[in-house]
Amino acid sequence: MNSPHVVVVMGVAGTGKTTIGPLLAARLGVPYAEGDDFHPQANIAKMSAGTPLDDADRWPWLDAIGAWADGRAGLGGVVSCSALKRSYRDRLRATAPGVVFVHLTGDRALVEDRMSHRQGHFMPTALLDSQFATLQPLQPDEAGVAVDVAGGPEEITERAVEALNALPGTGTGTPR
Description:
Blueprint: E1 6-10, H1 17-28, E2 32-33, H2 41-48, H3 55-71, E3 77-80, H4 86-95, E4 100-105, H5 108-116, H6 128-134, E5 144-148, H7 153-166
Parallel strand pairs: 1-3, 1-4, 2-3, 4-5
Helix pairs in contact: 1-7, 3-4
């Protein structure tokens, strides 16, 4: 990626946002922010209890992430955020115009397996179905790329960098 865009690493729980985000930020030479750190304690308690968040829970969280991204405009950065619905991504773009999305995608069984082996995370595997039900993949008019999460973290990161470099305005190639 040639220009200092802010990249939002998105996807359902367990796709590796927290693993790939810092690796991608290191490759791009920009700071990384963990989206979960922007959740108010009430959201964390709700998810820890196995209750999915509703939109009213998500708006302040998305606004906080958007404010961080907007503060990095022109400087670049990477932030993780599930951004499952188009309306959530629209909200992020309204706060931080120019953000680019890397949608981590994967087979449900693989994602569930990875989720079940995570240590110390508040999101239980019981909420995975609600995540997939809510997911609205990136649309052709949204600046971003989809990257499959099969393989190791370095391989996934490399595919993300290559895909970003192929996006108009971020690299030298053509769109996805």
